Amino acid sequence: MRLILASALAYLATPSLATTVNIPNVVSNSTVTAESTSVAGNLDAPKLTPATPDQSAYDWWYFDAVSTTDNASVVLVFFNSGPDGFAVPDATVLNVGIDGLYANGSAYSININTTSGAVIDYDDNYISGNWTGSGISFFGTNLTGTPVYQITLDAPEYGISGTVTMRSRAPSHYPCGPNEAGQTEQLVPHVFWANMLPDAATDVNLTVDGSPVSFADGAGYHDKNWGDAPFADSVSSWYWGHAHLGPYSIVWFDAIDSTGTEHHSGYVAKDGVFSGGCGDAAVVARPWGENSTYPPLVTTGIMQGLELTFDLGQAGEFVANVTTGSAVSTSDTYVRTIGTVVGGLVGSNETFEGAALFEEFKYRTS
Ligand SMILES: *[C@@H]1O[C@H](CO)[C@@H](O)[C@H](O)[C@H]1NC(C)=O
Ligand SMILES: *[C@@H]1O[C@H](CO)[C@@H](O)[C@H](O)[C@H]1NC(C)=O
Ligand SMILES: *[C@@H]1O[C@H](CO)[C@@H](O)[C@H](O)[C@H]1NC(C)=O
Ligand SMILES: *[C@@H]1O[C@H](CO)[C@@H](O)[C@H](O)[C@H]1NC(C)=O
Ligand SMILES: *[C@@H]1O[C@H](CO)[C@@H](O)[C@H](O)[C@H]1NC(C)=O
Ligand SMILES: *[C@@H]1O[C@H](CO)[C@@H](O)[C@H](O)[C@H]1NC(C)=O
Ligand SMILES: *[C@@H]1O[C@H](CO)[C@@H](O)[C@H](O)[C@H]1NC(C)=O
Ligand SMILES: *[C@@H]1O[C@H](CO)[C@@H](O)[C@H](O)[C@H]1NC(C)=O
Ligand SMILES: *[C@@H]1O[C@H](CO)[C@@H](O)[C@H](O)[C@H]1NC(C)=O
Ligand SMILES: *[C@@H]1O[C@H](CO)[C@@H](O)[C@H](O)[C@H]1NC(C)=O
């Protein structure tokens, strides 16, 4: 009895940081504030105040994974977006976008509205998100150690069910530095970023329209973006992507904002340590081969590949050559594709090969 009481008191004495955020499936009429500097605690928590977006704001949780042996891949985005913030066609404020490829390279695409709202529970070490009524939810555990995430899809009426399980293999970070309080979260003005899983060993076990999308130990990734102004008014073009090659995990962001200024965020991790930052040379991404107009235009086709140069300071220079593979989804203003990558530290005798998943936005018309 005494022991039980003592442990109950010890439990009560521990400050509880658990927070539950209930988000209704509506647009807020009050102006939203976007977090722009990281706070102590959960990097993956909601970033808008209030959590419900106004017409021009958005806050999304993004997950993807690609097989290292064939085209099998999946991209899952839990959107909480005002209609002008990040336009998702034919969707309510809260919706889940699911795109990917079967092993043979054929694409699938499903979008599911929530019928009610979303519930997000989090503390420093845990997060769960349930887009209620969609059948799709996620949780992340061990966030202060080596994070593990799982997404559960139970939407047979939309043709999709199964799980995606991700085990982190590279440290979390913000655009300019490590996962700690006081870091800037701005990628370009009005667009913010937090990268919980720059690289994750990922098991995918999905059934999509009756056919499997299934692989073990793929190259997975999880981040979130949010913003307080329409995305398409904030960005002119951008290249983002991630890859796993040999012992390396890489993430690149090279974007041009609406005023024409280029912004960079580069990340290269090995053995649990990363180099990177947001200086002008942190990473430079340039298209090569066919359709390599730079900056890209609405009329530019899919680039044949991307050359990436990362300045790692004292750790040297890392160069990666990405070759475009099968496209997951494309429009005039957007390309998302899988690919292969070859790269290594300049001056070392070793290069590594691996799998990449990347995207391009292009809003310029001339
Ligand atoms: C915002 O205002 C519109 C028009 O007055 C109203 O219909 C809507 O319910 C309001 N939204 C919220 C979240 O209160
Ligand atoms: C999702 O909601 C949007 C907006 O209300 C609607 O246009 C669309 O048809 C809905 N999608 C589905 C699959 O019900
Ligand atoms: C991947 O998809 C392409 C078509 O986009 C196809 O030619 C290729 O054979 C597929 N790869 C595998 C391993 O099936
Ligand atoms: C998500 O919410 C729905 C509706 O409340 C509930 O039925 C379902 O069990 C929840 N899913 C998870 C994983 O908690
Ligand atoms: C949690 O993270 C720690 C530190 O990286 C690791 O030692 C431990 O195995 C992780 N636990 C789980 C359940 O993954
Ligand atoms: C994949 O999912 C199916 C049905 O959802 C299940 O029967 C099977 O055991 C799962 N396989 C793995 C490797 O988890
Ligand atoms: C690729 O695989 C999917 C799922 O099994 C199938 O529906 C589709 O017809 C296949 N595509 C081709 C070109 O064979
Ligand atoms: C380049 O773009 C054109 C026009 O969109 C397209 O037909 C072609 O396949 C693209 N080249 C590559 C390598 O994707
Ligand atoms: C990237 O790879 C392609 C295809 O192998 C090659 O043609 C190109 O020269 C490479 N680019 C660089 C900068 O190495
Ligand atoms: C690269 O250099 C290291 C150190 O000199 C050596 O141990 C290794 O065998 C070399 N690898 C190759 C592929 O030549």
Automatic annotation (TrEMBL):
Domain Diels-Alderase N-terminal residue range list = 18-226
Its keywords, alphabetically, are: Signal
Q: Which residues form the signal peptide?
A: 1-18
Mind telling me which InterPro entries this protein's record contains? AsqO/PenF-like_C, DA_N
Q: Which residues form the AsqO/PenF-like C-terminal domain?
A: 233-362
Q: Does the keyword Glycoprotein apply?
A: no
**Protein name (record):** Hydroxyneurosporene synthase
Source organism per entry reads: Coleophoma crateriformis
